[in-house]
## 1
Amino acid sequence: MLAIYVLWLRQLKRYVRSRSRIIGSLGQPILFLVALGFGLGPVFRRAGNGNYIDFLAPGVIAQGILFTAIFSGIELVWDRQFGFLKETLVAPVSRMSIMIGRTLGGATIATMQGMVVFLLTLVIGFRPYSLAHLPLFIVLMFLISLFFTAVGTTIASLLEDFQGFQLIMNFLVMPLFFLSGALFPLSGLSPVLTLITQINPLAYGVDGLRGALIHSSHFGIGLDIAVLAGLSVIMLTVGSYFFSRIEV
Amino acid sequence: MTDQAIRVEHLVKKFDGFTAVNDISFNVSAGEIFAFLGPNGAGKSTTIKMLTTLLRPTSGQIRINGFDPTREQNKVRQSFGIVFQDPSLDDELTAHENMEFHGMLYRVPSQLRKSRIKELLDIVELWDRRNHLVKTFSGGMKRRLEIARGLLHHPSIFFLDEPTLGLDPQTRNQLWNYILNLNKTKQITVFFTTHYMEEAERMAQRIAIIDHGKIIAHGTATELKVQTHTSSLEEAFLSLTGRAIREEEASGLDKMRLRRQMWRRH
């Protein structure tokens, strides 16, 4: 337990100290909100879909979480050779507790990042319909964070080097985001795109956040939570297995 | 307590058909300073990883303070400290936090932790810098901090993998003073690797030389020199391992060192 706490606390301290990284990571959400939100807003409204900023904001929050979570998981690749991880691997603690501590730490900072992006969307003009679902919103953010941090950790456990990094960005992270319904409604899509969004875990995250913030959910919040929680358990198990096999 | 701090018998490690460590046996007595030498790729790191529970041997036996690293991992881990070849500090944390987290991982009770951290940071002359982030430290300061950290849980064996690599003579000298002092006052067994032969000659009571996964010579520096009819350990080493330069392909690790430097600049 103490090991889990140490690794969690360490991630948190690192996050809070990296102010420039927090600010830097807000560039993309701002760009999406301004360029797409204001750029496509009029078309969206004319199509009878309402306020695009309100629709887009939960998607941009999910994007902030996705990137932070995957990166904090993947950071393990560095940590393994040049960082604190090696120190923990020779400490008298189980691999399982190291993996869980790291993942919980990563998930916590991704949730915090989601909160920061949420505050940013409020500044840009997003108005949640009510704040009654704020606790639900936080739970959903945490589940998205947990799942994708575990994905990042699992990938990092399998990577020897950072060569595959660009591949992961272009063929995993970006498609996850663009095909999640973060930018467009899930109803009325072509059958292929419908299928893709149905098997995209982030789609359930975006949908859940939308349900909590603007009370409009395609799959239903219950299903969103069930899918994210189920996938998190699976991914943590798979991740722990691969993590336990890491050799340094 | 056994007199043998480290006992290795017929140790073998194979990677996909390649034999990195090929049936080696040696002992290190408690309280001894032992140098483990060899050219690049000879099997030094692989051996250290097996001794420190990071790799499972293919066959053979290891005892660390009488414990088996494959079966009694936590007992073995509690009993040694290590300074890795690549720094394993967290740059974004302060010196004190690095110490504190180590103490927590090794379950050093909080009061004891406090007093030991003060004592050790005093010894390595970093107490005044305790609240500075490690990324502001020089290479020598990082090494000193790693040494202090590795000793926090009072290990009886201290592994040092090229502890003085890339440090200037002043810092090297100072580091060795700390280590020798600890060896004397706390009877800590020291197991180290180095490419600086004069360091091994001066510091180690006994030396083993490994090449191509086999231990090809062992004994005191004097014994090795007599055996090879040479006048310095450097010459003895060259006469035992040959003068040919070991061309290693850039390993994944080398490439990562490079990339990391690039990554850090952003």
Note: Chain B has one domain: 4-92+154-265.
## 2
Amino acid sequence: MKQIALKSLVAAVAVLPWLSYAATEADVDNAFYPYKSGVPVHPAIKPGMVINKGNVASAKDALDPAMFQHIQDGWLEIAVGPTTSFDPSKNYVEATKKNLGKVKLGAKLGELTGYVAGRPFPEEPDSKDSRAGEKLAWNFKYFFNYGDNGSIGPFYWSFRDLNTGKVERRINFNFSFLNYKHRVTDAPTPDLAPNPSQFYRGIYAKVLEPLDIKDTQLLIHRFEDDSKRDEAYLYLGFQRRVRRLSTSQTSDAFLGTDLMIEDFEGYNGRISDQEWAYKGTANILAPYFNHDQQQLSNEFQESDGYRFLDVTGKGGCFPKATYQLRKSYVLEGKPLEPGHPVSRRVYYIDSQTFTIFRVMIYDKKGDLWKSFTVGKAHADHHLPQNKGSGAPLDDFFSMVDVQAKHCTTGQFKVRIGPKEAPVNLFTTQTMRGTS
Amino acid sequence: MLAITKCRDGGGRVRLMAYGLLVLAGILGSGRSEPVMAKEAKDLSDQRVDIFYENATFHRDHTGLSKFRNTLQMEVDKKLGRIGSFDNLNFHARLRGSWDGAFQMNDDKFGDRAGGAITLEDTSGVFPGGAAHGAGIPLFNSGGVGGPTNPNQGLVVLGSHLHPADGGVTFGVPVRPCNVDSRGCIKDYMDASRSELESPEFNDRLDFIREIDVSGLIPLGGGRNLFIKVGKQQVVWGRTDLFRVLDVINPVDFSRHNIYDELQDIRIPMWIAQAEYRMGASDTFDDLNLQFVWNFDKFRPHNLGQGGSPYQILDAASFFRGMKNCWDNGCTVSNFVPGALIGAPNPAGFAPAIFGPNQIGIRQAHLPSWSLGNTQFGVKLEGQKGGVGFSLNALSYRSQLPSLRGGITSVNPFMGTSAVWPHALAFDIHFPRVNLIGGSLDLQADAIKSVFRVEAALTEGEEFPNTLRPELFSKSKVFRYVVGWDRPTFIPFLNKNRAFLISGQLFGQHLLDYEYSDGPLGPRGIPDWENNHILTLLIKGWYQNDRLSPQVIMAHDVRAEATTIAPSVEWLVTDNLKLTLGANVKVGDGARKFDDNRSAMPYTNPFGIPNPSVSQGLGGFEPIGRFRAGPIGMAQKEDEIQLTLRYKF
């Protein structure tokens, strides 16, 4: 018993410096402007080149293992673009600086104190810090995602056969997102009030087509308290009724797609649902690009002339976009629930925006199960209303089930701004009234 | 002369107009199978038109084709934008037209050739083998029964598809459409011609306009809004499936597929105005709303079907039609006259009796006319607090179920005199006013990965048959409740990637003013159970990225000991084509017996039997055992295989 207590004490002493590390404004500048002194370089990778199965070996260290394998197997080729800075919202940076040194991890996984707004832990992760992974997870949770309020619509989800490319089903959504707390741009900041249950975020989705699920609506309220499960409500068009949903089964496939609800945006669960481990920092080829400089799709027509990012590669399961070398953190998450179908997930997080752009998902046996890609567009090269928002815009996602040889792709039209997600949209009564 | 009317196709003009509207709508919607692009490029849902065709073909065991319904439906949604005080005004319309071929393709069961000559049971031995409709012990003015105005044609014996007479009372039910045989048709209530049965949307209430409404939000500042919605619409309260506790604002069309169709397809939309004061979040509540609902439409009852049509909840419409024919034209009633009274070979048995017109039966239906006093009003307070969604509801409405009220003037079948005879089987149909208060809540139980839904309502004013009362009905307060449990559950050996939805519900009904007693010959009083429960269970799974979805729905009526099992598989062939193959199988006891009031003596009579005297409790399956058998028990012989195809243009 004494030995165990001594070990715990030694461990606590070792961790203590990292729990109490005080980040500086220089850390903040380095975090948000990593390319001000130069962009990453790689001896075999140059902007304008195409990486294919013939030359992928030379780029292996700039690719995650799954993407390397996809290219080597001839599933896709990727065009390389120049590394560009996705400058963040100045308000988000200021909030980070204002909050410096005030944010602390709690004793338990999933506990955080002192957080107001901005990036909770702007300092570089350190491999000696046993809770560095957890800090990265918090940084991801509170990244400048859709600003304080944003929407997607139309949002085309396509179910594709990886082998044949056949589109088996297509769902067209509208999504809206609202931050109840930790707001930095749109009044009121930092919090909406009143907010008696202390919601952190609201997610609202409505299905426009196909007919069999038309008018289905989903409302999710996420609590500030990470230990609380989300509240979710589903309006089924054919029932004309709002039903409370149990959010305990986050590993369920969402509407038959290849995504679990937990997979949304890279990770959509609680911090306390996974054990986190920081695995290192590397310059990785990531699908970050200027939307207006891509070869866009003509498949969907928008009267304002907007064109969606196109698909490419095997089965049409990958974004037709340029990739760029970006400083990235590698984070591993292991679900803590014993019956969870995933053994671990490996996330690739862009250090500047803290967005997840690649996830490798492994099944219970430890075999690669799914390969997730999120393509990010620069706000200044997108719809006029998004210019200057500083929000990294979701432009494409692809979840490839490498075992079932199936994928789900998502093509976005994102808008940032307060009118995109009024607070009264995030109520069950609105769900009843809007259908 | 047989009382068969000419084809009363008064709805022809309506149909023509409706078809024209559908065609016009189709033209407007042509080329718009995809959502119509928004003018402001803001939102694909700014305007959209969806049109689909559906064929539902059902085959019933021992009956043959029970449904060959072809439906064309168009749904229009348009955002009108900011107009006046409204921040965002929306227009919504849903047009539906259908034609069910079962009435012609299976016309000897449901159409012009349905029914035939019948024989009514005689346990007294006076009429060996039974008495034909028109035969029996004659009573006052009963000579016309079986004659030209009321021939023994186109009839079935009430309940004969479900049970034998078994010593109880039965009578003939005309089963041909009302344009072919008008006997037993109840004006403005159950009097559909064949074309109206085939195409029920094309009627005087313009039901092909299934929904048409305008809604919008008026900002009031401070996060508060006023939501207004006016038009022909469905207003849905409550949180339960299949059975309704709070969801009672719109009447229901049970003639479409009994209790088994989705409620959105069988609620009868009404002209309703609703106003909702949306208060949003406060320091106490996460959300709070106060809703006022004014149903200003002319009253409409549930559509219970029609005698002879394939779907009738409780087989009530057949009962009504037989009773209406008895009133209008007289009828033979099986096993009615005590054998001992007439020196029958079997004095313990009962002989069929022939009643003349205006002696027993249903005289008329009193459908409330439109007046301000006959409109219906409800209020709901709904909100969320601390993870619990809740509502408090109050509604003043007209019962959508009919009440058979005795106490009307009728003819004494023994003496021929007219009076109000206590305990006489002579009724008018009424739809009494009912007041409801209730509430609901839902909450998540993390530890067991479940959601619970609870609903409860107390009504005042509902009326029930009651053989202990001189008017043969009484009012009772009714308490209904439901507890629902939903759990997404992984069953790894069936599907490791997709959870099954398991949803169970327990419905309870308690009659607070229940009257029941054991008479010398059996129980009497209110035939419904004082306390009863119905259990439902849904298990639904998904395969092939949700394009293949098997499910089974089960419902069990505890006191009726009747169960229905409905397995089905839904296959999304493409986003525009869906096939559903299903079955509906019932198991259990089926029909149940109760006091039939035969042993009451309402009339002055030549036999020296004291009058009026209450029923002694002699009973049988008909006519009110159906209230004990319930909707599942009364459909025991309606096992079906069902194939539905839906194609979106």
Note: Residues 1-44 of chain B have pLDDT under 50 and may be disordered.
